[in-house]
Amino acid sequence: MTSEDKVTFKARVWQWAKKLDVKVQSIMLRSMQNKWASCSSSGRLTFDTSVLELPIHLQDYAIVHELLHLQVPNHGRLWQCLMQAYLGDYESSEQELKKITSKQQKKTCK
Questions:
Q1: Is 109 a member of any domain?
Q2: DSSP symbol at 52
Q3: Is residue 85 in some structural domain?
Q4: Distance (Å, rounded) from C-alpha 79 to C-alpha 63?
Q5: Which of 4, 10, 59, 71 is the most buried (most CB within 10 A)?
Q6: Full pLDDT tens readout for the chain, 110 residues
Q7: What letter does residue 54 receive in the DSSP assignment?
Q8: 3-state helix, strand, coil in the chain (%, to 5)
Q9: How far apart are the first and last CA of the chain?
Q10: Helix, strand, or coil here: 46?
């Protein structure tokens, strides 16, 4: 992961924020133990540094997932509909991330 990777990723977050019309206060990349990303109600987004190693479509899933929480704080029907509207078949990306997560957990448990 280079500083250029971080800059490129953050630029994509800003682009998605503009597209979704949400206000972002800050974007951080740091090591997180149990999550791909999180957001605060004030618009602070934090992404795990390993997100940078994911394919672009999974990065987009993580980005849009968190940004939509700035509008919809839960994973209810509205949030699901918005995910579908912006990413199409987002459920397949969600499943792909779960598989990656379970493989990573197995590696750290050995």
A1: no
A2: G
A3: yes
A4: 14
A5: 59
A6: 678 899 999 999 999 999 999 999 999 999 988 888 999 989 999 999 999 999 999 999 999 999 999 999 999 999 999 999 999 999 999 999 999 888 775 443 33
A7: S
A8: 60, 10, 25
A9: 25
A10: strand
